[in-house]
Each structure stands twice: as structure tokens, then as C-alpha cells.
Amino acid sequence: MAMTAAPAPSRALLALAEAKVPRYTSYPTAAQFGPLDEATYRGWLRDGVRAGDPLSIYLHVPYCRDLCWYCACHAKPTRSEARIDAFAAALEGEADLLAAALPEHGGVAHLHLGGGTPSILGPVRMRTLVNGLFARFGLRPGAELAIELDPRLLDDDMVTTLAELGFTRASLGVQDISPEVQARIGRTQPSEMVAIAVERLRRAGFSGVNLDLMYGLPGQTVDHVERSARFAAWLGVDRIAVFGYAHVAWMKPNQRALDATALPGAEARMEQAEAAERVLTRAGYAALGLDHFAAPGDPLARAAAEGRLRRNFQGYTTDDAPVLLGLGPSAIGSLPGGLAGNILDERNHADAVAEGRLPIARGVAITPEDRARGALIERLMCDFALDLAAPATAAVPLEPILREAIAAMAPLEAQGLVEIRPGRLTVTPAGRRFVRQVAACFDAHLAPSPQRHSAAV
């Protein structure tokens, strides 16, 4: 018996899918960042960290050997060992300054190295840097150490080094396993290479291995996405993220190497996202939030089931530390007082550190209303539902915020994307792919910014 094709999405849904909205990895979002002076940041550190508070640290390494054409991260290609040496020295200097600026705290509960390609540091620099962080900030028992890795630049020496330092989770960039798609995006990476990288990490004792996939790439089809998702499931990795490609060539010149005429349209992107979810959920993975999937028993799956899933600049996480510190060029931190972003350019970053200045450049203060709205947005992005009963401990009245947001989402309710009942707001299964649109109804700062945000789907 032939399968009936799913009905084509309406024009209204396609328009929602193409709309540019934030990813809401923070609130306020980076679009609200303005200049931030060092004195204000030091005040946030002084007043926002309490004795016993666990810390989360994100360390950004902005270098790759070669820059993939699709990449929208803050990254630069380099093969200069001297340049990497200078960068590592600047990171150590920044860590010294930051450790001195912090009041008493409870040590590091989460350390995440991202990039770029963090393994470009090599085993010796990696040991020096990470051990230095432990010495300066302290490490809490059971802390999670995670790193983003490129399977093409991963050897046994690096895996052994990371395992000996205590890393237990690694995210491997895969994007798509099909050679024809890889040729279009400038990233040749045979599937055998990915399988070997996963096996190396497992043998070294990594308890968590994640894969990052993408949809919406030039020339990519539903078949490509399904094959990549099946491959990820076959490897038996613990978490899989399936991100929609964001084409922002006006901001990222490397993306101009892509054939923009071959980019899938909104309907094709929706079909690809749905295909990935279909393959992964049938393989037993739990669909979490907007774009993550976790194996049963994984800490992320347990957190989602218990309503403890969190969202920060690294995406969905179990990290509930009240303070996130960013180290390295472009790194963003989050404190009770506000969001703080480092200087973007690595040479200017190093100059600031050499002068004894924390390399802060941009950010935004968080008001009590921002905090209330941000909490609502985070729960929507994580749980697809909100308890509309205002908590008695709310620092600001929630009723006006909820009333305003519910009025704004009337068109979404009419399309069956949200369901509003007394005391409860639920994003329907049909609306989950549009949860960023729902969250935007709570965003008091949102202004049209097609140059800053990616398509909703």
C-alpha cells in the first residue's frame, strides 16, 4: 500500500519558517549588546558571585587549520605555531586577571572548550592551559569537562591527553556524511574517519560523545539528511544536534564560496528537519528542545524528563551554574548583573591582557524584567510549555508580561501552533519547530533584524 504524502505546509507556515528570529541562547540576546567597560564588568563579578557558587567556564579557541565554507562561528584559519603560542599565552594571562577579579566561589562545575578547533592547541599547550585553569579556579567533584573536536584533526595523543585531564564529553562536527554535500561545503570527511574518532574516544573512557549534523546546506536533500542521521544512530553516540544552516554571507565572507543558488528553500528545510527527527526518534533517541536528541539514560534526556533542561550559549545543557565566565576572543559570559562579551580580534584581546585589562568589550545589563522574561523564554525553549500561574517569588509582576505575550501569539494559536488554556500554555507538536517564534512573543527588545538572525526553521 502506497504511503500518503504529507500535506504541503501552508504559505503562512512557510512565512514563519523563513522569518528571522533569535535562537534564544540568552535573554537579552546578543543583538542588544552595546559597549561595556571593564569597571562595570568587574562590578558584576564582584557582586554576582557568592561563596560556594559553582562556576561554568567557556573557553573559545578561534583558530582552525582551514575554514569550512559554511562556518558562521568566530574562527580564523592559521597554520602558524607562533600565532597559537601567542594566543595560548594571552589566554593564561586572561585567566590570571579573571581569577584575581573573582570573589570567593565554589570552583568549576562545567568547562567547555569551543571554537574554532580547540585541539589545534596540541597536547602540550592543552595540558598547560587546562591544568592552569584547575589551579586558578579549582575543580568541583564530578565536574563535566567537554570539548568540541574536528575528527580530521584528532589523533591518539590528543585523545589520551584529554582523557588524562579529565574530559568526559566530546562533540564531533560532522554536518553531512555524503561526499557530494561535503564537496559543496569545503569539508571532506569520510564517514570512516568519524567512526574511528568515536571509537578512539570510547576507548579512552569518554562517557559522552556527541555529533553535530546540519540541514539546509547547498545541494542537500532529505535523502542526505536521513543517511547522516542513520549513520549517527548507528554509531550509538549519546547526543545528536541537528542545526539548520544559517546563510549570513554578508557577515561571514567564507560563506561566499558556497553556491547560494543551491540552498534549499523553506519547504525543503522543513522536510529535512522533520526527516532527521523521524529517523532519530525511530532509532530510540529522545527529541529535546528545538534541535537536540539524546539517548535514553543520557543526563540531558533525564534533565528534560524532569524539567531541569537548561539553555545557554552552548545550546541545550544540564549546566545550572549561576555564573558563566567566557575566556578567549569573542567568548560571552553570563552573570546575574548582565551578559559580557570579550574583544573579538585576538590581537586586540592579547594587547588588553598584556596591559593588565580584562579583555571585555560589549554586553548588556540584565534588569529584573529581563530576568523574568528570560526565565519564561528558557522554559518554553526547553519544555514547550509554561505554567501561567505567576510565582509568588517573582521579582516583577508576570501578569502584564503574560497578557502581552499571549495577545502577540494569537496568530500562532490560530494556526494550531500553541494551545492556551487556563493556567497553561503549550506548544503543540505542530508548533515545536516554530518555538523560536513563540518565544519571540516574550521578547520586549525584539526588532526586525534580518542581518543578525537566522531563519526560524
Description:
This protein has 457 residues and is α/β, with parallel strands linked by helices. Helix content is 37%, strand content 22%. It has 15 helices and 22 strands. It has a 9-stranded mixed beta sheet with strand order 11-12-10-9-8-7-6-3-15, sandwiched between helices. It has a 4-stranded antiparallel beta sheet with strand order 2-18-17-16, covered by helices on one side. Strands 19-21-20 form a 3-stranded antiparallel beta sheet. α4 (122-137) packs parallel to α5. The radius of gyration is 22 Å and the shape is globular.
The residue fraction in helices comes out at 25-40%
**Major sheet characteristics:** 9 strands, mixed
Strand content: 15-25%
Q: Based on CA inertia axes, which overall geometry fits?
A: globular
Biggest sheet strand order reads: 11-12-10-9-8-7-6-3-15
Average residue-wise pLDDT: 93
Structural class: alpha/beta
How many individual β-strands? 22
Low-confidence stretches: 1-5
Characterize this entry briefly.
This protein is α/β, with parallel strands linked by helices and 457 residues long.
